[in-house]
Design brief:
9 helices, 13 strands, 2 domains, Dihydrodipicolinate Reductase, domain 2, alpha/beta, seven-stranded mixed sheet, binds NADP nicotinamide-adenine-dinucleotide phosphate, Rossmann fold, about 325 residues
Length: about 325
């Protein structure tokens, strides 16, 4: 198969390549890395393999691709995803370009892979904060009807790409709107007229689309914090009946999640625990004492892995299995 990674020199793109390597997808497949002109010729080494980055331009394209994993922002996605589709690829895009488009599935594979059809040639990877919280919400929704969600995020600088990581390390403001060192910024993405930010609106819209529940009431507050990697979220969920903590613990004891919940012993999810890991870590699980039907918990996850690259590669694996592997008759 021909697999393209567009945005291969970025934080997400590099991790996509690593995750493909870890999951054995670099063997037997031809991998093509693309980025902007300034990265042309750069070599990226992963395991025992070395790849050269090409400028994303018509002259550097192959005649056919099976898959294209995009992580180069929404402008590049708008401009180039249709070209890769014409060249035969299933495009899995990490940006917000297509997430709200009708007919484009927005997918967390553990939850709604079946939203992808053979003809869904563009597949959107959700926002990182959305992916993290959707795993526990999905399990809760199998036991209870969820009525309302209030979520506050503590988002790492890596979520804004490599320039934002430099801003944290160097005390600069080249990417982030304010100094992040010794600070936090209660604004991620642009301001909307209703007082929310676009990042908060993304969570609101995307959680409903993935859970197939337009009636959900959601309010998000998204904050950038001076942590290099791993997003955290404080989550309050209002249910249709009193929560049972043991049932909820069972909900979180599923593949892709790890419950670390022993407040007395100081055990709970933290960025230093989830860094480099694939799972969403959950803790501080408790009944909300201010309402009968509320439950609160805290999550941490690696926003570059499950929040972006890993989720995209998991989608790719399932697309390969379902649509790109020739079934041989015995
Ligand atoms: N970081 C996260 O946690 C996260 C999570 C979910 C989704 N996302 C989304 O994923 C995308 C990438 O994020 P990131 O954090 O990896 O950003 P990043 O570190 O800034 O990397 C951006 C990548 O896009 C490439 N690029 C920029 N302009 C290009 C152009 N005109 N043509 C071709 N390639 C171009 C860059 O190439 P050069 O190096 O040559 O400039 C680089 O490879 C964004 O849409 C972001 O919103 C990120």
């Amino acid at each position: 198969m021909n697999i393209a990674i567009v945005g291969a020199t970025g934080v997400v793109g590099r991790t996509i390549l690593s995750v493909l390597y870890e999951r054995g997808l670099l063997w037997g497949n031809d991998i093509f890395l693309y980025a902007s002109k300034k990265s042309a010729g750069e070599k990226i080494v992963v395991g025992d393999k070395e790849y050269e980055v090409a400028e994303l331009s018509i002259k550097n394209l192959k005649k056919h691709y099976d898959l294209a994993l995009f992580s180069a922002g929404k402008d590049v996605a708008f401009a180039w995803a249709p070209t890769f589709v014409k060249l035969g690829a299933y495009v899995i895009d990490n940006s917000s370009a297509f997430r709200r488009r009708r007919g484009v599935p927005l997918v967390v594979p553990e939850m709604n892979f079946n939203d992808i059809k053979r003809y869904s040639k563009i597949i959107a990877n959700p926002n990182c904060s959305t992916i993290g919280v959707c795993l526990p919400l999905n399990e809760i929704s199998k036991k209870y009807k969820i009525k309302r969600i209030i979520v506050s995020t503590y988002q790492a600088v890596s979520g804004a790409g490599k320039l934002a990581i430099d801003d944290l390390k160097n005390g600069t403001t080249n990417k982030l709107p304010h100094m992040i060192k010794n600070n936090l910024i209660p604004q991620i993405d642009s301001a909307l007229k209703n007082g929310y930010t676009y990042e908060e609106d993304k969570m609101n819209y995307e959680i409903k689309k993935i859970l197939h529940n337009k009636e959900l009431k959601i309010s998000a507050t998204c904050v950038r914090v001076p942590v290099e990697n791993c997003h955290s979220e404080s989550v309050y969920v209002e249910l249709n009946k009193r929560p049972n903590i043991n049932i909820l613990k069972e909900c979180f004891n599923k593949k892709g999640m790890v419950l670390i919940d022993d407040l007395g012993r100081g055990k709970y999810p933290m960025p230093i625990i989830s860094n480099g890991k694939d799972e969403v870590f959950i803790g501080r699980l408790r009944k909300d004492t201010s309402t009968q039907y509320g439950v609160s918990f805290f999550i941490c996850f690696d926003n570059i892995r499950k929040g972006a690259s890993l989720n995209a590669v998991q989608i790719a694996e399932m697309v390969i299995k379902k649509y790109l592997t020739k079934k041989t008759k015995c």
